[in-house]
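--- STAGE predict ---
source: upstream dedup step, 1 unique chain passed
mode: sequence only
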Amino acid sequence: MPSSLLILFTRYPVPGKAKTRLIPVLGEQGAADLSRDMTEHTLAAVQLHGAGTVEMQVRFTDGDPAAVKNWLGDEVDYVPQGDGDLGSRMERAFRESFGSGYRKVVIIGTDCPELGRGHVDEALVLLEDNPIVLGPSTDGGYYLIGIRSGAPEGLFNAVFRDIPWGTGNVLSETINAVAETGLDLGLLDDLDDVDGPEDLVHWEKAAAAAPKAHRKLTISIVIPTFNEKEWIDSLLERLESVPGVEVIVSDGGSTDGTLEACLAHKIHVVDSQPGRAAQMNRGAEVAHGDILLFLHADTSLPDGFETAIGRAMIREDVVAGAFRFAVDYRSAAMGIVERLANRRSRLGIVFGDQAIFVRAPAFRLAGGFPDQPIMEDYQLMRHLRGQGRVVLLDETAVTSARKWRKKGVFRVTIVNQLVTWLYVLGVGPERLARTYRRLIG
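--- STAGE serialize ---
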């Protein structure tokens, strides 16, 4: 086991709780998004090189380990910070880490976008000759604190008790407290902190300079709805728990209470002309994400879907993809349907029930979904395959089997295949839509 431990202190980005001083200018969601981006930026920056020489841990508030792991990945360990003020939580982290056998422990925050692995490495070197190291931030606090094992008990009492946390005097009070112990203190260079509106320029500068490969792509989920009250509330409740994902409901004139259910959630709702293609295009118009994910209201995404999409999109030749197909009803016949659908999907032929995702620029270059009543997803994917690769993820999206159970597995499967073949042979989508409605409803 490495003798050194790096701990990242962060907050799960819950709107209204994250970056509260920036809410007046960014709004609750915007402030939470910034908190998310800064955490991801810091995590990437300290892992850019020297991987494996220092073990890493994330300690968090306002979330559970599973949610944070889904957000940040499974490369590090996750531990709740626990109760108490900041001093109590940091002291706990140091004591538990030394108890686990680490010789040097460094804690960093996420408020200084210039913070990188070099600062961590320098702190570890300084800990050879100093029992404590601080990285000052320009707002009067510090972005890093490191302590080596065997430090006197009085040091913990000095730097974690009776400090005015949340004020501009944290650094000076801590330096004075260390001086009173008579111990040596190592200091790093000052870094700019992003705390208030006037500090946003520091974040914008650092974000623009960040390596492209280490920026996490943002996802906008577009959900077309028409009388989906049965499904929409539980779907939105789950999606709201995923940090950094924009959710847009594009409604085509629901009359069953779907809109009222949507308004109970912190999402973006837009009105649209009816029709799945028109509704998805309308949602895409207002989306801000790098990736557009088109999700049917009766389809459930797998846990960690955003991480799976991010991994797939690391390759720049990948323009779109989808999840494996499954339904929420088990039978031998449905098992055959699922296997056939996934075999077809490996050839890049995917449909809307599989939660299609696509790079936003590629979607717009393709002209969005074609304005047609059926096979709009198939046609879009044909256009996208001309721009790059379409991938099938190992993870599964589960859609409702209501159509198969109501009309029969054999009937729906045959009609779906028939419509696809006829479309490929050149039969118009309007005529196919009439045929589909007559046979399936």
